[in-house]
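Researcher: Re-running this chain for the archive, since the previous output was lost when a drive failed. Same request as before.
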Amino acid sequence: MVARALTSDGTPPAALTVPEFLAWVKDRPGRFELHDGQVVAMAPERVGHAATRFAAQRALLDAGAAAKLDCHVLPDGGAVHIDDLEVASIRHDLIVPSVAGAVVHHQGRSDGNILTRIINAGALRLDPPGLELDVSAFFA
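Model: Regenerated structure tokens:
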């Protein structure tokens, strides 16, 4: 069940565009996401999720440094609107569940298709840009 967010008078906001959502959520307590125009209330982040997210960011940052790539890693949580894998320069989308011990890797292909793999051990290669790291590093 998805928890809909409510306005100050107790009613859910109407379908919102991204700019409308960003204005609505600004300085509002709690965590919210926008899904198909609908504001969804999110549960507070748990420690396990935060630890896994940090380990994944650290693993990606270390892999970039080891490959001597001029790149950077940003934590999630920023209000950036993109359609994943529809931007030509975005080739990889990683889902790292904190309890599964596996990484779901969506790789955008030059033919417009998306290759999805579930990797629970061994090397993960992200090319471009030329990163290689062990999946276990996401859960350190």
